[in-house]
Design a protein that fits this description.
The protein is mainly α. Helix content is 71%, strand content 0%. The protein has 2 domains: 66 residues, no CATH class; 211 residues, MetI-like fold, CATH 1.10.3720. Helix 9 runs antiparallel to helix 10.
C-alpha cells in the first residue's frame, strides 16, 4: 500500500465536514476582524486629514502625512524613542543574562535547598506587582536611581517567570552529557555557560527578549513613578501628554503616535516568532 493510499482516507472530506470547517473558519475570521478593527481604525485615522477626523468611516478619502508632521512638531518624539529604546535594550540584555544563569543553575546544578529556593522564587509570582511599588521606590531612591534607566531595568532583571521559563527550557534543550563532556575537557563554569549553554538557548533568549521588550516598551506605570523629568520620558509617558485637551488637532496626532509605538513590537515579534514559539513549546513539554 502506497503512502497516499495509507494516509488518503484520513483526509477524505464530506459535505458536512466541509461545512463545519467553513463555519469554524468563518467564526475565527469574524473574531480576528473584531479584534483588529480598533487597531486598523487607529492606523487609518492617522492618515486622515484634519477635516475627516470626526468621520466614522474606516478608510480616509485622502491619505495625508499631516498628523505625523504635527506629532513631531508638538512633542520631542525622537527623544522619547531614544529613551524607550535605551530602556528596552538594557532591560532585555540584563533579563536574558540573569534569568538564563539562574535557570541554568536550577536545571543542571545540585545544591542544598535547590527545590525549596525554586518554590520560593515561584511563590513571588503569586504576589501582586503593586505590593512591590513602595519598597522598590524607596530602594531606588536611596541608590540614586530616580530619573535613571536602572530603576526600570535592574529590579526585573531576574524575575520569577523568566527564571521558570529558562529552567524548563534548559532541562529539555541542554543535554547533561554535553555539559559533563565540557567539564572533562577542562571548561570552567563561565566557559561552559557562554560556549555551550547560551548557543543552545537561542529560542529561549528570543522568547525572553520579546516578552521583556514588549513589557518595557509599553510600560507606563514604571516611568510614571521613577521619572519626573521630561528629558527622560519614554514613549508611553510622552503620548499620555498628548491626551491633554488641546482641541481637535491631537486626535489624529494621538493615532499617529500610537501607530508608531506599535511598529517596533510588531517587527521584533515577526522576526523572532519561530524561536518564541519553540521556546514556549519546549517549556510546556517538560514537567
Amino acid at each position: 500500500m502506497s503512502g497516499g493510499e495509507a494516509w488518503g482516507p484520513r483526509y477524505r472530506t464530506t459535505p458536512g465536514a466541509v461545512a463545519a470547517r467553513m463555519l469554524i473558519y468563518g467564526v475565527l475570521l469574524a473574531g480576528a476582524a473584531w479584534t483588529l478593527y480598533p487597531y486598523l481604525w487607529m492606523v487609518f485615522t492617522s492618515f486622515k486629514p484634519m477635516a475627516e477626523l470626526n468621520n466614522a468611516y474606516l478608510l480616509p478619502r485622502r491619505f495625508t502625512w499631516v498628523q505625523y508632521r504635527k506629532l513631531f512638531e508638538v512633542a520631542p518624539m525622537w527623544l522619547y524613542f531614544f529613551n524607550s529604546i535605551r530602556v528596552a535594550a538594557i532591560g532585555v540584555v540584563l533579563r536574558m543574562l540573569f534569568c538564563t544563569m539562574a535557570g541554568y543553575a536550577f536545571a543542571k546544578h545540585r545544591f542544598p535547598g535547590r527545590g525549596l529556593l525554586f518554590i520560593f522564587v515561584l511563590a513571588t509570582m503569586m504576589l501582586p506587582a503593586s505590593l512591590f511599588v513602595v519598597p522598590s521606590f524607596i530602594i531606588c531612591s536611596r541608590l540614586g536611581w530616580v530619573n535613571k534607566v536602572w530603576a526600570l531595568t535592574v529590579p526585573g532583571a531576574a524575575d520569577a517567570f523568566g527564571i521558570f521559563l529558562a529552567r524548563q527550557f534548559i532541562l529539555t534543550a541542554v543535554p547533561t552529557e554535553l555539559l559533563e563532556a565540557a567539564k572533562l575537557d577542562g571548561g570552567g563554569e563561565w566557559s561552559i555557560f557562554t560556549r555551550v549553554v547560551l548557543p543552545l538557548c537561542r529560542p529561549l533568549l528570543a522568547a525572553l527578549g520579546i516578552i521583556t521588550f514588549t513589557y518595557l516598551w509599553n510600560d507606563f506605570f514604571g516611568p510614571l513613578i521613577y521619572f519626573n523629568k521630561s528629558e527622560v520620558f519614554t514613549l508611553p509617558i510622552g503620548l499620555q501628554n498628548l491626551s491633554l485637551p488641546r482641541g481637535q488637532l491631537l486626535q489624529g496626532v494621538q493615532m499617529a503616535g500610537g501607530f508608531l509605538v506599535t511598529l517596533p513590537m510588531a517587527i521584533v515579534f515577526i522576526a523572532l516568532q519561530k524561536q518564541f514559539i519553540g521556546s514556549l513549546t519546549a517549556a510546556a513539554l517538560k514537567g
